[in-house]
Fold this protein.
Amino acid sequence: MGFNTLRFSLIAVSVVSCLAFLRVPTASSVVSRNRMSRVEMSTVAAPNFAPAQTSTREKVVVLGTGWASVKFAQNIDTRKYDVTVISPRNFFLFTPFLPSTVVGTVEPRSIVEPIRSLLEYDSRPFTRKIKDRFTGLNKENFKRSKFLEAAAMEIDYKNNKVVCADISDFVGGSDASFEVEYDKLVVAVGASSNTFGTPGVKENAMFLKEIEDSLKLRNVLADLFETAHMEKDLDKKKDMLSICVVGGGPTGVESAVEMDDYIRDDLASLYPEEIALTKINLIQSAGDILNTYDQKVSEYSTKLMKDSTVNVITKTVVTEVKPDAITVKSRESGESYQIKTPLVLWSTGVTASPLVKAVMDSVPEQTKRNALETDRTMKVKGLDNVYSVGDCSTVVEEQLMMDSAEKLYKKADLNNDGSLDFEEIRTLLEASVAEFPQVEVLLEDMARDGEEYVTKFSESGVCELNEQEFAKFIKSADSSLRGLPPTAQVAGQQGTYLAGFLNGETKKPFKYFHKGSMAYVGQGKAAAQVSILASMLPYSVQEVLPLFGNDIVLTGDLAEVVWKLLYVDMLISPRNKVQVLFDWFKCEVFGRDTSRF
């Protein structure tokens, strides 16, 4: 059986299985739930929000409906906290499938779920329901969180209030703004696309952060081929069919290859002359695409794209975006040149939203410019009762080891020989965990790699470090606390952790477990770097069974099967799972829809 047949069979069986085991609610339960939703909406629709009845529970306000906020809301103990979720978006969006919605591999409605349904007891994760049994929380005493479809305009952290406004395009509120009081605030508003100040990006480029971006890009792509089909000048037609994707990370790569699949599989027979002239330029400032993945993944992806319409351009930065062209500069030669293009997709990272920037500017303890700094319990530095999770935050340990490097070195040099060997370093670190939790990272690395890990910091090539080398060694531990990637995986874990912390279930600081990275790389193939075993197994076991402690790197057809299975499992609701499986099934049988909206 070929892999195309295997994929088709997998999707078909998955659809049937989901339908067989999916519990479909009765008509009466749907009516009851809708009726309850209308009653709840009537109690919160007024601009000056006030609960229907006085609550003795602490008021927790959550800003946002992304990965972090949803995971927080689904794990918090609502008997203890009166939770209100505020966002201008009344749904959760499964962002990893945004590139697929651009070309119709997956439909937009398949990757969104109404936030109100996710606040029900039945939507709580399976592992959380198990914990609920031990704490006495059940469907009967569960208090559903409230939701307000509004935008947070300002955070008055001195008076514990959030200033909100109904900014909807259709039916606006009677007042311009209203206030919501809180005892604890959770900021999870996500982040904006980072343009790095590049001229013309905001005016002329497109982004892929929201479902509206996906629909707009889908229409522009369809219009591009229809317009090119009517163009008689061959040079103009060629320029018109040059598409640029800026950014070689997962979103940029998946967007480029999804468009290539669309062109290859669905447009080739409809626009044969235009397809022959089409080129997708994937521009990356680093030396490789997917450079945060294993080198095998990057090399495999680049090789696969050589057989596609995707032209990978590395070590190149975009210096200007115009309506019909971009200016790029080679980092190696310094040469600048133009690429004619009517469509630029900008996917180069994230930066703070205006709301987050306003908080950073008003709190002296905040020194970063792209995200709110928090400690490892997710509490915002400089504020007592404000927490931040997801893309809008960055974890920074207040007590850095570098500040005590000299003291630690002298403490560890027990024999005063001017250097530290492996055992001296390990003894020091084990005694310092309470003061510096980040040393756990070093201890784990040393347990996994042994003396080799320490030796790489030694200029002499032996497993001994002088004071300067030791400073570099512990700096790597401090660095591990910063710069967690702005991914769904990180945001979800942070939201779940913060709920457990506020529930009183843990006092330990947040620790991120990287379960792996996956990317679709086109032509029915994917790349997966699965690290879940390395995250879950004790390091003592990894030493005995090193295979299980290392990342498992998969590429090709098998990786695509793994990618689909894991992503379907990650979808937030049974409805989403079934819809995505049906979309794939439909795509395999009938192809993608090529019409405009």
About this structure: Residues 201-351+517-590 form a domain with the FAD/NAD(P)-binding domain fold (CATH 3.50.50.100). Residues 324 and 342 are 5 Å apart (CA to CA). The radius of gyration is 26 Å.
